[in-house]
Amino acid sequence: MKQLPICLMSSFFALFAFSAINAQVSCGATAPVNTIGVGPYGINSSVQSTAATLTTNASSQLPNVEYILTLRGTPALNSQSTPDTTGGGGDVIIGTDNDGAFFAPSAGRYGTTISVGDTIDVSAIGYNLAQAKTLFGALLNNDISPGNPCCNIFTLTNAGGFCDSLNSAGIFDASDINNFGDVLVCYEALFDAQLSIESLIFNMNLFNSYQTLIPSSCGGGSFPVCYGVNRTARYGWPVSTANSIEKLSDAAADFQVYPNPSPAGEVKLNITSTKAVDLSVNLYSLLGEKVFSKKLGIVNGISSVEISVATLTAGAYFVELSDGKNKEVRKLIVK
Predict the structure, then answer these.
(1) Please, which contacts does 215-220 make with residues 24 or more away whose CB atoms are closer than 8 Å?
(2) How far apart are the first and last CA of the chain?
(3) How far apart are CA 41 and CA 22, in angstroms?
(4) 3-state DSSP call for residue 165?
């Protein structure tokens, strides 16, 4: 932890020490919760995941919902390059995404290496972007009193100052804060270790403990900062080799699912192949459970296949068309 003024640290521990580890929400909000499970196919630099699906929506205090990406089994490290235990410790945050649909990068935040066989977990976080812009914009540019900038509230010995840390990251005022990735940088400026969701929660609560100590001219009127995250609701995407999920190309030049979204009943697959190929179709739930499978046999030219979804629970599914070696996947919504 970077060194903070004694007055702030004393108040922080008095207000926060007994609630840090289990804290997941503020402002009496309801955290968004995304589906728990494992993706039915691997992702890489050319094959992306599908957008995340929420099982619980965020409450009105959290008008913005985005997604935190963590690298499963790789702990966030502290300044001594050992696993950080702040907030209980956790997997390192390697990025953020606006809808949970992303390509696997070769490296994440802090230069973390991402390799074939790794799993990238997706966790929903709800927050209030307008509130964050007001708070951090004021801290960056306003004064406590004439000639005494709000940046002086913080004494961060390892990064040359809170505002210096943000400026070096390209954040100079509220206009530079436009998504949760930017907000993450703001909280990160308080910390000299890699962030996990657990330590991020710690830092968000740290900020909220300042609400009576930061003057309104420096954004004090923006407290408490509202957020909500469920640390255990994570959807994992395995990282594959670049060729493990090739498009069917010659085998299936066109693969369409309709109607989509589909009411209870049947959906049709329209397949156009440019050569004779032995195909099969599988349907997976978001948890990776196979709920339908059918061998289509040799397909050459235009073919139509019907899949019954009458017995399926409403939600998102993946339709996989495979030739035994390569496959293509489409997302299907059942109403």
Answers:
(1) 215/144, 215/150, 217/138, 217/142, 217/143, 217/144, 217/150, 218/138, 218/139, 218/142, 218/144, 218/150, 218/153, 219/134, 219/135, 219/136, 219/137, 219/138, 219/139, 219/142, 219/150
(2) 48
(3) 33
(4) helix
* pTM, two decimal places: 0.69
Given its phi and psi angles, is residue 147 left (phi above 0), alpha (psi -120 to 50 degrees) or beta? left
* C-alpha span between 74 and 113 (Å, rounded): 10
Distance CA 326, CA 60 (A): 44
Question: Which residues make beta-bridge pairs with 143?
Answer: 149
Cβ atoms < 10 Å from Cβ of 6: 9
Phi, psi of 218 (to 5 degrees): -105, 15
Q: How far is CA 29 from CA 63, 127, 199, 227, 270, in A?
A: 11, 10, 20, 7, 44
Q: How far is C-alpha 241 from the geometric centre of its chain's CA atoms?
A: 22
- E strand or H helix at 186: helix 180-188
Select from 97, 22, 32, 96 the least CA-distant residue to 60: 32
Whole-number Å distance between alpha carbons of 223 and 32:
21
Domains of the chain with CATH codes = 6-238 (no CATH), 254-334 (2.60.40.1930)
pLDDT values of the chain reduced to their tens digit, one per residue, 335 residues? 454 443 444 343 333 333 333 338 899 999 999 999 999 888 887 788 999 999 999 999 999 999 999 999 999 998 888 999 998 999 999 999 999 998 887 668 887 888 888 999 999 999 999 999 999 999 999 998 898 888 887 754 443 478 888 887 889 999 999 999 999 999 888 777 899 999 999 888 887 887 788 888 988 888 888 999 998 999 999 998 643 334 455 455 567 888 888 886 789 888 888 778 888 888 887 666 788 888 888 888 888 888 888 888 888 788 888 877 677 777 788 88
Q: Are 69 and 99 in contact (CB under 8 A)?
A: no
- Give the number of other Cβ atoms within 10 Å of residue 218's Cβ: 23
